[in-house]
Design a protein that fits this description.
Blueprint lengths: L6 H9 L6 H11 L5 H9 L2 H11 L13 H8 L1 H12 L17 H17 L8 H10 L3 H9 L6 H6 L6 H9 L3 H12 L3 H9 L11 H16 L25 H21 L3
Helix pairs in contact: 1-12, 2-3, 2-6, 3-5, 4-5, 6-8, 7-8, 7-14, 7-15, 8-13, 8-14, 9-12, 12-13, 13-14
The structure holds fe (ii) ion (2 copies).
One fe (ii) ion binds next to loops.
């Protein structure tokens, strides 16, 4: 029996997803602009009372151990950094997508959020070693959303997934993404890209979501960003923060060397730094 996924059913599932709020979209657009300033982010947060409350709750979480309560957004943002505000906004606007169990991947509940958050932190760390100018917070945002397609694809992938690892072992396909394509005619990057289009996310994020496993396929101007997330994703899996049975079943494209100075030592440092930041971020972002 064919396990080819009905694209129309996937399209309908995506159509049903609630849209991002205006402020969350503005925030992602502002972050995607390398010329933006912290003040632009502050303005957006101040106009959204729900976001303001979550940001203040996060900065005052016991994880940060601040002696004095922070009550202003300006201070909260300078303390937390733009990336934590983006995390809060993305978490709020994607609802249950990050927390539902990934059926086809046999992933744990909340595993997608943990993997994407770790990848976001690692992608930002990778970006610090860029040979050219690089917007660190955009790398973080890309990492945070790169695998969002799995949240919808997992359900459609359920019936075919048991054959994926066997296909890789037998050399029929070279990685997990190809197994998804081969078995269903679709993969989590394509589904994620359709979701990003539905949400009207900035083009740079659409490119990350679509090309994070094959960054060389992204248009040239997007490649540094897509490679940062590509490496950040692998680092996350190396640190044991994967989404289930696809952990480390993807190829590392060495083309990242054109954009980043990463020695084995710096990679080890990136893993350590990411683990430290991740445990704090994860604990403070609990809803
Ligand atoms: Fe992926
Ligand atoms: Fe990933």
């Amino acid at each position: 029996m064919s396990k080819i996924v009905d694209r129309e059913a996937v399209r309908q599932a995506i159509e049903k997803l609630p849209l991002f709020s205006t402020s969350a979209l503005q925030l992602l657009q502002v972050i995607a602009d390398p010329e933006h300033e912290l003040e632009d982010v502050i303005k957006i947060v101040k106009f959204d009372s729900a976001l303001t409350m979550r940001v203040l709750k996060t900065v005052n979480s016991p994880v940060y151990g601040l002696v004095k309560e922070v009550t202003s957004i300006d201070r909260a943002l300078s303390y937390l950094g733009e990336r934590m505000v983006v995390s809060i906004a993305v978490q709020e606007n994607t609802g249950q997508l990050f927390s539902k169990p990934l059926e086809g991947y046999q992933g744990e509940q909340g595993g997608l959020w943990r993997h994407d958050l770790f990848s976001a932190i690692a992608s930002r760390e990778v970006a610090r070693y860029a040979k050219g100018n690089f917007d660190l917070d955009l790398a973080f945002t890309g990492g945070l959303l790169h695998d969002i397609g799995k949240s919808i694809f997992a359900t459609f992938w359920k019936d075919a997934s048991q054959d994926a690892l066997g296909q890789i072992d037998q050399g029929i396909v070279s990685d997990y993404l190809m197994a998804e394509q081969d078995l269903t005619g679709l993969d989590h990057t394509e589904v994620g890209y359709e979701m990003a289009c539905h949400w009207n996310l900035p083009e740079s994020l659409q490119a990350v979501i679509l090309h994070h496993h094959h960054p060389a396929e992204a248009i040239e101007c997007m490649q540094p960003l897509v490679y940062a997330v590509h490496v950040g994703d692998i680092v996350s899996m190396m640190a044991g923060c994967d989404t289930g049975n696809d952990g480390l079943q993807y190829q590392l494209d060495s083309g990242y060397k054109e954009f980043f100075n990463l020695s084995p030592n710096t990679l080890a440092e990136i893993v350590l730094n990411s683990e430290e930041e991740f445990s704090k971020a994860e604990a403070s972002l609990v809803c």
